[in-house]
Amino acid sequence: MDVAGKVAIVTGGGAGIGAAIAHALVDAGAKVVVTDLDESGAQAVAGSLGDSATAIGGDASSDEHIDAAVRLAESTFGPVDLYFANAGVGLGGGVDTDEAVWDLAFDVNLRAHIRGARRLVPDWVERGTGYFVSTASAAGLLTQIGNAPYSVTKHAAVGFAEWLNITHGDDGVRVSCLCPMGVDTKLLRPDTDSATDEQRLMQRAVESAGTVLTPGAVAAIVLEAVADERFLILPHPEVLEMYRQKGADYDRWLRGMRRYQTSLR
What CA–CA distance (Å, rounded) separates 185 from 17? Predict the structure, then answer.
């Protein structure tokens, strides 16, 4: 898909990967609605993009917010062509993680994708065109040491993107799934000194696994993948080899991951 002249919604667009994707889209000639729970962040990003962007604050997992974002896009720019389900949360730890944190992870990292697709895919099928880009994580293909809710919900996000691609790919609906390792965002490096031992373990695992990329570098790779209509977007190419090793000998991979975890502790 050539994004020039297209209308896109980017959730979690107030900072990090989402903000970088919004900038890359506008640079490529698209019109963008930036959404974020942090409304001031979303407005700041949209304001920096001029007349090609507008913003709305709200919860990306809320049906009401998704509908409001779609209506804003339609009234400002026209029908939505691309939806970047990018908002995510990284809270959590081990099996003792509170139920409320599990619920938040499932809502933002998975159900937000389901609800966005439910709102847009029927229209796209009728039009015969549309593009859904899911931000998951390398954790969705591999795992995330130190964070069970993140690992589980990112696996689920990959699974939903796969299903969407298989089910509606022949209806003109394109689907891509972004699975990076370390990206220099607040999700990886929060502005707080109150991180738990498990959160610090998660950060060490990500930072030691490969290069920590800038959001801008990731956004450029995302737009290249959209242009190629490529399903799996891997800003860290080594993830593919890790994934192959996992599939080739699951038990050996699990033993290796346990050794890696021990070394990080």
Answer: 7
